[in-house]
Design brief:
- The protein has helices at residues 45-56, 59-71, 75-103, 118-148, 183-192, 208-225, 229-255, 260-268, 278-292, 298-304, 312-345, 356-369, 375-408, 414-432, 437-481, 487-510, 519-545, 552-559, 571-588, 595-606, and strands at 8-12, 15-20, 23-24, 28-29, 166-167, 181-182.
- The protein is mainly α.
- The longest helix is centred in the last third of the chain and has 45 residues, at 437-481.
- The chain is globular.
């Protein structure tokens, strides 16, 4: 007959062991950590909130959301986007915040929760490294436009003599020849990027003016992050708040434009028949990931610098709803401007299909050139807003990579890591500001980022919600916030979110169409995807090789369990966590021995929190 006893802490050589029923739980170090091992914290909770806003509210809201909405039918896209945000975006955002704050670990170290899956964190970090190269490059183009916005007349408002088939962007009438293109388009393709329509003969060399703009961007990023999380927290006050003031000004101006109401109506009016189009739902999921910056490790890293009891439930709700609000407001501004252009040129709103770079660097400038007054003011405001939003996102990406490196090599100075990343980012960014750079960007974004993110997020959900368990996560939330986790969150984490992501992932391969680039670049894209994904296999194999268990199945089981030091950063809270975990383990008895019974128990516990 088993005899149950309460856990009794006993101190052995500066560490605490929990004795339960005559057996000892893994040791928990209760000694204070050395100074170089103590994790930095946000000075104030508001700095974490604003930093997350600066990270999540950026390129994905200002240009990707409007053009994705336009490509997928305006109001036909808005409904799936809101549904996906509710069932996928918010649950994942909250989940990543919980895991980061509870463990005080970065995007790779957080997978101490199941070392078998550490390659998922490595893969997510590599995806961020790929994003790092082109985000700053896009930012450099906005700097170039910002500088040009001070000229009078605006540099893109009128055609140059050598631009054949060009019509002035400041012209407000309807061009008789439909093949004529606005001067803003020529300015972007011919003057700024010197764009190549194909890359059959190479990508060319970087433009020297964009090179200086790119260098300026990396100097700004480095200055913000050189002193670590404390300096970036201070910068978040400006990076997160000021762009909203500019967006408000642009919104008021847009609503006064002739024809803006038709564009806004196209965004808000649902097209119910398109809700059955899987492509629209696929676009909604991918936009949700880009908009909230989830499944890349950044949210985990930012939350890891929180105090243990910070109210992340409140923060997650504020940020996710604010992100949605920003996307819709940005959509209203963009569709209002497009409606104005359609009214002036005599076209229909639905006929004006625009891509991402076109929207930001052609449509916006073209519309501003048609304003009756204060053209320079609105151009400066718009590109300043775009720069600040991009700067906030870039600093978040760099912070995530810095944290991953310093978690592995804690004695490395923060400024040295930031400097190394800045040099790498500047070097990679040069590729994207070449005449063929946009083609390279499309390949890297599709294969190295979008497809890898969809794959890795499935493995992330499996790791956190099935290997570690939704039941355990709910107890962790109880320990941190002293609140129960509702059925909605537990059902989404266990079933709904994962099911939606799997369907979209399958659809992305079933409906796969290669980009219009040379086969060599397509092969390069698949190599990027394979390189990121192979990390999962390599790190799993490495972990299994180092296990001491004899049977292979025992190695897998052991590698799927948290490491001995997993838990809260504070030693007192870690003892409490392990005590409660040991009690539950003893109460469950041998229920976890059978795989079928264990899965059934997890399913039942999804609907009921003890």
């Amino acid at each position: 007959m088993n005899t149950t006893t309460n856990p009794i802490p006993s101190t052995v050589g500066g560490s605490t062991q929990l004795t339960i029923g005559g057996s000892e739980a893994p040791e928990v170090n209760t000694l204070p950590k050395p100074d170089d091992a103590v994790r930095e914290k946000w000075d104030r909770g508001i700095e974490f909130l604003l930093s997350c806003v600066a990270l999540s509210v950026g390129f994905g809201n200002i240009w990707r959301f409007p053009y994705t909405a336009m490509q997928n039918g305006g109001g036909a896209f808005l409904i799936p986007y809101l549904v996906v945000l509710f069932l996928v975006g918010r649950p994942l955002y909250y989940l990543e915040m919980v895991m980061g704050q509870f463990s005080s670990r970065g995007s790779i170290k957080v997978f101490d929760v199941a070392p078998l899956m550490r390659g998922v964190g490595v893969g997510q970090t590599l995806a961020l490294v790929l994003i790092l190269g082109y985000y700053a490059a896009v930012l450099s183009v906005s700097v170039r436009y910002f500088v040009a916005s001070f000229g009078s007349p605006l540099a893109w408002a009128r055609c140059e003599p050598e631009w054949v088939g060009c019509v002035d962007s400041e012209f407000k009438g309807h061009a008789q020849n439909a093949s004529f293109r606005p001067s803003a388009e020529f300015y972007f393709n011919r003057t700024v990027l010197h764009n190549y329509w194909t890359v059959d003969e190479g990508i060319g060399v970087p433009d020297w003016k964009l090179t200086l703009c790119l260098l300026f961007c990396w100097i700004c990023i480095s200055c913000i992050l050189i002193k670590g999380i404390r300096s970036s927290g201070k910068a978040s006050y400006f990076l997160a708040i000021f762009p909203y003031l500019i967006l408000l000004v642009l919104l008021i101006r847009t609503c006064t434009l002739e024809g803006a109401d038709q564009g806004i109506l196209y965004l808000l009016k649902p097209q119910w028949q398109k809700l059955l189009d899987v492509q629209v739902w696929y676009a909604a999921v991918t936009q949700c990931f880009f908009s909230l910056t989830i499944s890349l490790g950044s949210v985990i890293v930012f939350a890891s610098y929180n105090s243990f009891n910070n109210n992340i439930y409140r923060d997650a709700m504020i940020i996710s709803w604010l992100d949605t609000f920003t996307s819709i407001i940005s959509g209203i501004v963009v569709f209002g401007i497009v409606g104005n252009i359609a009214h002036i040129t005599g076209n229909r709103v639905e006929d004006m299909q625009l891509q991402g770079p076109q929207l930001t660097f052609i449509t916006y400038p073209d519309a501003i050139a048609k304003f009756d007054a204060a053209q320079n003011v609105f151009a400066v405001l718009f590109f300043l807003m775009f720069f600040l939003l991009g700067l906030g996102s870039n600093t978040g990406i760099v912070t995530t990579i810095v944290t991953a490196i310093r978690d592995r090599f804690p004695k490395l100075s923060n400024w040295k890591v930031v400097l190394m990343i800045a040099i790498y980012g500047f070097g990679c960014g040069l590729v994207y500001i070449t005449p063929g750079g946009l083609h390279v960007l499309d390949v890297v974004d599709k294969y190295g980022v979008t497809l890898t993110t969809l794959t890795l997020v499935m493995l992330e959900i499996v790791t956190f919600c099935w290997l570690y368990g939704v039941e355990q996560i709910a107890h962790d939330v109880q320990l941190m916030l002293d609140r129960k986790t509702g059925v909605f969150w537990r059902v989404c984490w266990s079933f709904v979110t994962l099911a939606i992501v799997i369907v979209i992932w399958l659809f992305s391969f079933i409906q796969y169409t290669p980009l219009p680039v040379p086969q060599g670049m397509t092969a390069f894209g698949w190599c990027l995807y394979a390189f990121v994904m192979v990390q999962v296999i390599v790190w799993a194999a490495y972990e299994l090789q180092n296990r001491k268990e004899e049977r292979f199945i025992d190695k897998i089981k052991a590698a799927s369990q948290p490491t001995p030091d997993w838990g809260p950063e504070d030693s007192t809270m870690r003892v409490r966590y392990r005590t409660e975990m040991s009690k539950r383990s003893e109460q469950n008895g041998n229920q976890s021995d059978g795989i079928g019974k264990n899965i059934l128990r997890k399913i039942l516990n999804t609907f009921y929190q003890k």
